[in-house]
Amino acid sequence: MNEHLTIYPIIVHLITAVLLLFFWKKPKIQRYISILGSTVGIVIAGMLFHRVWENGILSIQLGNWEAPFGISMVADTLAVTLIVLTNIVSFALSIYSTENMVSSRIKFGYYAIFHFLIMGLSGAFLTGDLFNLYVWFEVIIISSFVLLTIGGRKIQIEGAVKYFTLNMISSIIFLTGIAMVYGATGSLNMAELSRIIPEIENKGLMQTISLIFFIGFGVKSGVFPLYFWLPASYHTPPAAVSALFAGLLTKVGIYAMLRVFTLIFPLGETNQIILMIIAGLTMFFGGIGALVQKNILRVFSYLIICHIGFMVGGLSIFTQVAIVGAVMYMFHDIIVKATLYMMGGIMFRIFGNTKMEKMGGLMDNYPKLSFLFAIPLFALVGIPPLSGFWPKISLFSASYTANEIAMLVMFIFASLITLIIIAKVWNNVFSQNPESIETKSSFKYFKDFNFAEKAAYVVPVVLLVGVTLYYSFFAEHFQLIATRIGEELMNTEHYYNAVFNINEKTKL
Amino acid sequence: MTIFLFVILSSFLFALILFGLGQQKFQRMTWVASLLPISLFLYFSSFVSPIINGEVFTFFTKWVPSLGINLDFRLDNLAILFTLLITGVGSIVFLYTTQYLKGHPKILRFYTFLTIFMGAMIGLVTSNNIITLFIFWELTSISSFYLISFNNTQAESRKSAIIALSITGLGGLALLAFAVLAGQITGTLSISEMLQSSEVFENHEVSALLMVFIFLAAFTKSAQFPFHFWLPGAMKAPTPVSTYLHSATMVKAGIYLLLRFTPHFQNNSYFFTVLLIVGGITMLYAAFQTLFKTDLKGILAYSTIGALGIMVFLIGIGTTASITAAIVFIVVHALYKACLFLVTGTIDHQAGTRDITKLGGLRKVLLPLSIAGFIAAFSSGGFPPTIGFIGKDLIYEATLHGGMNPVFLTTIAVLTNILMVFAGLVVGVKPFTGKQPEELGRVKKPHFLLWLMPMLLATLSLLFGIFPGMIESLFTHNITPDLTGEESPHLAIWHGFNLIILLSSITIIAGLAVYFLWKPSYKKESSMIKFNAFSPKRLALVFANQFERISYFLTRFFQNGYLRRYVMIILVLLTLVFGIHIFINPRIFLSLKEIKALNWNEIVVLAMMLVSVLFTVFTKSRLSAIAGMGVLGYTMCFIFVFYGAPDLAMTQFSIDTLTVILFVLVLYRLPKYLKLSNRTNRIRDGIIATSFGTFLAFTIIEIMNENPVKATSEFYAEYAYKLAKGKNVVNVILVDFRGFDTMIEIVVLSIAAIGVFALLKLYLKKHEK
């Protein structure tokens, strides 16, 4: 049955994770299994992407209970593209973790949880059922919580408690929203909901429920004023974990918004304005937060928030071009944010610190590494033609066409403040030579690494930088994908027909 | 013309090759880097005669067609002029630097960035797609960031680089906005195609927005008042960089942009008025500032800003004559300014200072250099027979015959030019004349490249002045947009006696007078400092500092580190959502009939609930609070029992029991009961909690009155046994209809188990952290 391919991305990581549990005390074998699992993951994601790209949206009814009675899994272009990117990041991090994670952490199930998390992400992207989405969120929260605390020190636990509490609250809010939707409509199937909800007369109620969802997803994606868990926790765990979080966790929130606010509750005027204001404030507060941080990882944390504003802003404008911009930004952001934290891990190994005042001189001492690091930093700023630049064309033009000049100004503000922040980071960490670098006795510095150890840190970064460069110079490919996603999201009948197996006469 | 694309991108490839060479190897063969600009110069020179004859060379290939972005390059008159300047001055600067930075440990980095910068400039002036123009525009900003902060160990350099990048970065984003908007309105991103729908630049309601963006872009890049202050700061760069950036390239990009889009805006009078005003202010302000500087590069910085002001001003006059004058002045300025910068560089290199009060009498040691300096100073002052004289002629010609108020325009042009005469003489003449001060010490003779390169530029200034015919055809043929249909003026040294000659003489004489009467000194420089409080730079820095302070305060205010604060914010938001819903849309469904339908055991349970809640909230003992919670949980179980869900009740019952036991166990580990919040806080929290609960309850009651589709629940009830072979519908839903959910929840539990295990057992050793 060819639609089974839809859930293979989930199955791969489930099997990998379970297999890893059997090699509990054997970190070396675990490292190989993880890399192997991620490789298979990429292959399968690629196959699924190819299938969807050629044949249109793919769906499967789990347990063979016809929709809407069972759980539907739906692979549309948005979902499969995110699955591909997720697997690329996961592959890079599988390699990166081999050195970044000490064996004792691996002996306590680091890799298994890692793959459970990837599974959770894949499930969240693929599910076509509202309650099932909640269940995937549970997987994501619990595994990220464990990853945050594994081998934890005081600071990690403190961050993790905030992380877990706030994310749990957000899940409960989400669950409340689901209960309300089910109470009002009697359905959990997203495709079916897209037909039922417009029929409901009590529009005010639907409006309120949609805002409940927004608050729930808002916490997860880190919008103002719900982002507090993010700067509190992202700088605490080992780099591999932060990189995974930075690349993918907030984006699940954005994904959920994109899905729910196009399919189930298409944004009305009021919600558009609310989202727009929130997006603007998110860019503002993320930007100014990053401006005043002293720790490079916290700078990155606040920049994550700042850039979430681009995606929420794109969604809020709610035209096809704007959605394309938001989706383009999301693709770029997944890769670049993961790269940033991986770089952060290397810098930590070089300086033994992530406080900017104790770093410096990277450009003089590691010119080639600096060159490598410059690419994601520039991409983040959106220096053309690197990846952060391309979404802005769509976002700028959409805000102009929709006559949302305030949004345009906020996009410019966020871009400019990112530029200034990265220039500051560059000056402090790369350009300025440090007065003295303290040496910790029981710390293994980057310069003491052997070739294989260095490679395990640097090769994954090179890999992701390669993806960024591909995005940058072959932006057409991504633009085409994003355009199709925009078309699929704004015209929900594609999704509906795929779930209910109605043949589309005109293929996309 | 694929080779054309290769030529434009060659700089980036070349930079990569240089980077690959490594400092060690490169240091022995720095001259290699100069090969690129020289060959590019020769390559572009070969296009001159066909282009003068009206040909236009283009290269086109698709890049991101779905956004309308193509690799679309176009070599026309304006482009060829700029490419020649970029590669020509580039060649000279590249060669000069081999000696200027000889043996510098970072010379490789210098050349790499300089090459990238040159490539970006070439791309900028040849792009016909406005988005690729923007791409190269940003590349110039970024590469100049590195060039300005080349002395990366100096805090001042780094700071100047950030200021320059912030200002030009703002302009860059404005340019992107301009590009996208213009593309939206005209439906094309090709600059030449936009011209066909130029009416949108005049009449369209958004032409105001377009102008705001293009002005922001051009004025920041070309250092117009009040954005000019990044330019003097950028003088922290090594002198060859200043030479290149400020004579022929970077700052001219803004001028280029304005010239390129002048045809589009040709019937938009606001466009020209703004340029006239901003250019006028800039040139006067900057020229005046040169009087108060003692650093040679400081003087050059302000005279550059002044010159840029003149160009904007000339474009603003908006006649064919004025635009020709602007273009000629670009060349004039590039030649003399590059020369003066190089002269300054050599002086600095040999004498170790750029302080004008300490310099003098250098003609004895640096004779060839002094000749170059003199010629450049004369060209800058508009003395015959240099090309500067012709340039000045054209300026007066333009001010006298254009605009609404020729007298006023001419007056400020003359004033500015008098001060420019002064500035040129101070830099090009003063260090060489008079007596050599004692404290200067022994000045060594420079390497021949260090005087030959400025000499080369000076010679060109002189040559083109005497034989303007050599370059005339570059300016007069089609380069000026056909604004008024009038002929563009003829370039010549001598037009006969007329008003213009008179004005030129007045300028020169007055300039000489200022030069001889006004001596730059520290005292004068510091006398200006008291006005600094109002200077745009100071205001911008104050703004930046205040902004950072406010940012810090706001960030700390929201991210104060307390979890309870974060939870409160989320709950307040939710309460607002529910509350607003209830108040906007009150649909309260409470009927007496339903209340009457309550039976006694339900009422008892409700009462128990209420009591246990109040008890939990108000008790002073942790243990009794937990007991209260337990009671509350059990009453919930009763509700489940009453409404026919015994299995749910059982589950809830066991969970509640377990929770209470766990809590009691934890209690022993906690410190004694403390009151951490004051009365106000507790009242506030109470209000939030009560309203949250109330509003949520009302909303849920409202939902109960909706009529959901029953298909799914009916399906479950009907087929649980028939198809799934299970008599308990809830069980069948859990393990079959929605069995996937359950499976994943089992995974969640496993993950939690692993996590708890690791939390309890794993302690990392110190070296593992």
TrEMBL record, chain A:
Q: Which UniProt keywords apply?
A: Cell membrane, Membrane, Transmembrane, Transmembrane helix
Q: Where's the NADH:quinone oxidoreductase/Mrp antiporter transmembrane domain?
A: 128-418
User: Which Gene Ontology biological process is one annotated for this entry?
Assistant: ATP synthesis coupled electron transport
Protein's UniProt keywords contain Signal: no
Q: Does the keyword Membrane apply?
A: yes
Q: Kindly give the membrane topology term recorded for this protein.
A: Multi-pass membrane protein
Q: MF terms per GO, please?
A: NADH dehydrogenase (ubiquinone) activity
Q: What cellular component terms from Gene Ontology apply here?
A: plasma membrane
Locations listed in the record: Cell membrane; Membrane
- Main localization of the protein? membrane
Spans traversing the lipid bilayer: 6-24, 31-49, 69-96, 108-127, 133-151, 163-185, 205-230, 242-267, 273-292, 299-323, 329-348, 369-390, 405-426, 455-474
Q: Which family does it belong to?
A: Belongs to the CPA3 antiporters (TC 2.A.63) subunit D family.
Which named protein is this? Na+/H+ antiporter subunit D
Provide the organism lineage as a comma list: Bacteria, Pseudomonadati, Bacteroidota, Flavobacteriia, Flavobacteriales
UniProtKB/TrEMBL annotation, chain B:
Annotated compartments: Cell membrane; Membrane
Every NADH:quinone oxidoreductase/Mrp antiporter transmembrane domain range: 127-410
Keywords linked to the UniProt accession: Antiport, Cell membrane, Ion transport, Membrane, Transmembrane, Transmembrane helix, Transport
Q: Which residues form a coiled coil?
A: none
Q: Does the keyword tRNA processing apply?
A: no
A Pfam family of this chain: MbhD
Q: Which InterPro entries match?
A: CPA3_Na-H_Antiporter_A (IPR050616), MrpA_C/MbhD (IPR025383), MrpA_C/MbhE (IPR046806), ND/Mrp_TM (IPR001750), Proton_antipo_N (IPR001516)
Q: What is its main location?
A: membrane
Boundaries of every MrpA C-terminal/MbhE domain copy: 681-763
Domain (MrpA C-terminal/MbhD): residue spans on this chain: 607-672
Q: How does it sit in the membrane?
A: Multi-pass membrane protein
List each copy of the NADH-Ubiquinone oxidoreductase (complex I) chain 5 N-terminal domain by range: 66-111
Q: Which GO terms describe its biological process?
A: monoatomic ion transport
TM stretches of this protein: 6-22, 29-52, 78-96, 108-125, 131-150, 162-186, 206-231, 243-263, 269-287, 299-317, 323-344, 365-387, 407-427, 448-471, 491-518, 566-585, 597-618, 625-645, 651-671, 683-701, 743-764
The identity of this protein, by name, is DUF4040 domain-containing protein
